[in-house]
Amino acid sequence: MNVNKQARVIGYCRVSSDKQENSIDAQDKLIRAQATLKQWTLSAVLIDEDEFSGDLKRPGIQKILDLVNAKKVDAVICTKLDRLTRSTRDAISLIELFGKKGVALISISESLDTESPMGRFFIRMIASIAELEREMIGSRTRDGLQNIKAQGCAIGTAPYGYSATPRTPEEKDRRAHSKLVVNGREQEVLRIIYDMRNEQFTWYDIAERLNVAGYRRRTGAQWDFRGAHQIFKLAQKQKQEVA
After folding, report:
1. Between 180 and which of 142, 146, 162, 219 could a Cys-Cys bridge form, CB atoms 3.0 to 4.6 Å apart?
2. Which of 16, 7, 84 lies closest to 46 in space, CA to CA?
3. Is residue 111 annotated as a catalytic residue, yes or no?
4. Annotated catalytic residue within 16, 23, 116, 128
């Protein structure tokens, strides 16, 4: 994968509106400096602005893939690997595709260059470490949310059958979560739904029974078969999470 001075080289930038330290201008300058260092002439610098990095469904990346598959590019330069993608699977797929098509991938921040086997190895390793870190953060977040639920606190909208108590000004200041209390009216709805399902009533029958009895959904709307079924499934899911 030796890229000569006449190579067709493109740069790639991605930036989010809240990440000014990785501005388009800053990335562009680094990419052009890298191309000059390698004595390459840039054909273009493709830009994805305010685009989510979790997948490859971005205009700039799709253009790169088209060029790579058509063998119309010899090298791609980015400032950092996570500008291309934050997914290990996608990063490896890109590297394998580039290798198959004879395209070099240069990541400036990590000093990595897939022109060499060692460069390709380190890119895979760094991508794997980055994903491991995100999974660990996600795991800690999930554990934290489960702990909050276990303490009887509300996270977001209170589950059906419960209400979130208003927070005091002091609780708001320290960002304390609202406590959950039993909502008697909604618990009655759940009991009717469970009892009627145990007796093999249809969802249409259940919705009609709730409406005739004067029960309404949280929005104030009447019950229909979809709403009754949805509440039933949500309640079942909440039971499983507690278990």
Report:
1. 162
2. 84
3. no
4. 16
